[in-house]
Amino acid sequence: TRAEKGQISQAAAQEAARLALRLMRFEGDNYITLVDTDSNMIEHPIRPEMNGKNFSDLKDSEGNRIIVNAVEAAKRGKNETNEYLWPKPGFNDPVRKLAASSLFAPWSWVFTAGVYLDDVQAELRQRVVAMGTLALSMIVVLSLFAWWVTRSITKPLGEAVSATRRIAEGDLSVRLDASGKDEVGQLMGA
Questions:
Q1: Phi/psi-derived region of residue 76, left when phi > 0, alpha when psi is between -120 and 50, beta in every other case
Q2: Which of 170, 173, 189 is nearest to 181 (CA)?
Q3: Using an 8 Å Cβ cutoff, are 97 and 84 in contact?
Q4: Which tens digits make up the pLDDT trace of 44-69?
Q5: Apex 171 CA angle, 165 and 176, nearest 5
């Protein structure tokens, strides 16, 4: 990076990274928070009033130590996730959130990105409905095709059976459509 090469100071590089992080979003309104390894909030893009404060005692209503757990998971470096309750931007009631954290050791920074599980469930439901609709459409199309194929065989066979009965009764004026090139068409011609 430019700071490692001495082109800018580490403080300037950190400030540029913090400001860039403030504007980042992924998958809609999801954001990345930044704390140090002592659980001090460096950048919370949605709740800037949290910046500069220590959150080592921050717990959700279930007792999950949100920031401490994120820092500890990042330090272990095993791609762990943490689940906790946190309000969505613009709402007061907390909902389940699943987050993953990563440590940037040279600066003792922990980046945490999470997704709200109700958003994941809504996306999953939407995809299940879409796939179900596609499957149902395919079943209808295949059923119509199967009906058409069955009908193309049974109708001429029914006509052939009817014709043979009429012939057996002595009616030799029977005329059948023998234009088909398949086995049924050959039977009709015979």
A1: alpha
A2: 189
A3: yes
A4: 999 999 999 999 999 999 999 999 99
A5: 70
